[in-house]
Design a protein that fits this description.
The chain contains 14 helices and 13 strands. It is 43% helix and 16% strand. By secondary structure, the protein is an alpha/beta fold. A 7-stranded parallel β-sheet has the order 3-2-1-4-5-6-7, with helices on both faces. Strands 10-9-8-11-12-13 form a 6-stranded parallel β-sheet, with helices on both faces. It has 2 domains: 192 residues, 3-Layer(aba) Sandwich (Rossmann fold); 176 residues, Rossmann fold (3-Layer(aba) Sandwich).
């Protein structure tokens, strides 16, 4: 059912591959929720629902209108026709697209439907290959989206300053690009001894044990083999350490990560959790949160962990170093020894140092990475387009 309001200044239509999955989808969900009851009428069109994260039921609650196209693929003529029909029905003032393939398809559909104000969303440093694409198809898409970036969007919003430089070097027009950092709900993600204890008891982890945590997709770009190689080094020095892996199971690890996991001295101290929408209960159980990715833009999980007062140790990719600043540590990518040393340094710090890092990490997110602040910037972008 459509929700109506006489106070809307305009309609923004979001086109996304999914409403369940990674950081970009989580950011979309956060943004739509933050814009509830505000001046913009919000329409969300998803290619499919997805299996994790913010799902169709939740999006129907928070968006003014939600369409689930239930399509197995973005690049289908039937989907393009449906999207154009929705745009004709909803008559959006602005079309905001999310991630490269949706940027290209959604942006083209919007412009062919007469929508002038198209905003692309960049949420990675590189253009990822669609599963099953041949080298030729991928190469053609890269050329097509670079050319389209000149003509289709009026604004290209990136969640990462590093990604702006990367895309400019690919040929995207820098003059169109703007930086809006990802944002999270700092009331949902907050320090909680109670939640930390609950999760540790559920996993049979001693309440005084050091815990290194990971939350995210079990995807090769996350380089989980590095996590387990570093874990093997740490186990030789701090065998009492436990590891929480939220996002999959041992069976869903890629081949390299699985081999590294099997080589651990003590696999019993690794606790796998399936993707859990209530990640605010996972972070407080961690002494340290980590990402060991090969590539990132501005990861949501770091913001969530910091908001929960958990110090972070991550590889130096994307905007991680800028986000963490003095509240945690960054280490070189693909260096398990450096990652293990970073974990050990954080885990063995005295309580006064850890408390100070915890408070500073949360304060940094509250001040700079709240969803309220991000939503204000997005709405200002939309407003400036329709007034220009």
């Amino acid at each position: 059912m459509k929700k109506t309001s006489s106070n809307h200044v305009g309609t923004v239509l979001h086109f996304t591959p999914s409403v369940g999955g990674g950081g970009a989808e989580a950011m979309l969900c956060n943004l739509v929720e933050a814009m509830q009851g505000g001046p913009w009428r919000t329409v969300v069109v998803a290619v499919k629902t997805g299996t994790t994260g913010c799902k169709a039921e939740r999006m129907r609650e928070i968006a003014d209108v939600f369409y689930d196209l239930e399509s197995p693929s973005l690049l289908r003529p039937a989907l393009f026709k449906k999207l154009k029909a929705i745009i004709a029905t909803e008559k959006p003032d602005v079309v905001q697209t999310w991630m490269h393939h949706a940027d290209f398809v959604g942006g083209l559909a919007a412009r062919l439907s007469g929508v002038k104000h198209v905003v692309w969303g960049i949420h990675s440093r590189t253009i990822f290959r669609w599963p099953g694409d041949s080298d030729l198809k991928f190469s053609l898409f890269q050329m097509a989206i670079r050319a389209a970036s000149m003509a289709i969007p009026r604004k290209i919003v990136s969640c990462s300053e590093t990604a702006i430089n990367d895309h400019a070097s690919m040929g995207f027009p820098r003059r169109k690009m703007a930086f809006i950092a990802n944002g999270i709900c700092t009331k949902r993600f907050e320090p909680s001894v109670e939640k930390g204890v609950k999760t540790r008891l559920a996993l049979d982890i001693p309440l005084d044990a050091p815990v290194v945590g990971f939350v995210g997709r079990f995807h090769p770009v996350k380089n989980l083999q590095l996590y387990f190689r570093a874990a093997a080094i740490l186990q030789s020095k701090m065998p009492e350490t436990h590891f929480i892996m939220s996002g999959g199971s041992a069976e869903t690890l890629d081949e390299q990560a699985s081999a590294a996991f099997e080589s651990l001295p003590d696999r019993s101290k690794v606790h796998f959790l399936p993707f859990n929408a209530a990640t605010e209960e996972v972070y407080p159980a961690c002494s340290v949160f980590t990402l060991c990715s090969e590539s990132e833009a501005l990861p949501m999980t770091i913001l969530e962990a910091m908001a929960c007062g958990v110090p972070c140790v991550t590889t130096d990719v994307g905007d991680c170093a800028t986000v963490i600043a003095e509240t945690g540590l960054v280490v070189p990518p693909s260096d398990p020894s450096a990652l293990a040393v970073g974990w050990e340094k954080m885990l063995t710090a005295d309580s006064a140092t850890r408390n100070a890092l915890s408070q500073t990490a949360r304060a940094r997110v509250v001040a700079n990475f709240s969803i309220a602040h991000a939503a204000e910037q997005y709405q200002h972008t939309y407003q400036s387009l329709i007034e220009s």
